[in-house]
Amino acid sequence: MARMRIRYTDWPRPALVLTDTPRPNCFACGGQGGHNRDFGHPATGEYEGTEWEPCPCWDGRRVHTLLPIPRFRGRVRDDHSTEPPF
Questions:
Q1: What is the pLDDT of residue 61?
Q2: Which residues contact 21 (CB under 8 A, 6 or more apart)?
């Protein structure tokens, strides 16, 4: 069962989206949606980096755009401009 919430995102463009959330009482991730896993170089064993492993209780790709938000350029608009305000 999905646990939906409204969230602001700025990628790929600003919008309010409806998205899935991790199960708050999940025994595997503790409601975080996944966990970090450190890994090392196979030959030397030295630290190589960290990867995010998502938990099966959550699907971060389940996103539906509710309201696109216009991008404001931050310029001062003059009265003689023919450009739209956003």
A1: 83
A2: 3, 4, 5, 33, 58
Long-range pairs of 64-69 with CB within 8 A, sequence gap ≥ 24: 64/17, 64/18, 64/19, 65/15, 65/16, 65/17, 66/6, 66/15, 66/16, 66/17, 66/18, 67/15, 67/16, 68/13, 68/14, 68/15, 69/8, 69/13, 69/14, 69/15, 69/16
Which positions of the chain have pLDDT values less than 70?
1-2, 73-86
Structure-block tokens of residue 58: 């959550």
- Tell me the pTM: 0.54
Interatomic CA distance for residues 61 and 19, integer angstroms = 8
- For residue 44 the two structure tokens come to 């030397």
* Pair of tokens at residue 36: 């970090």
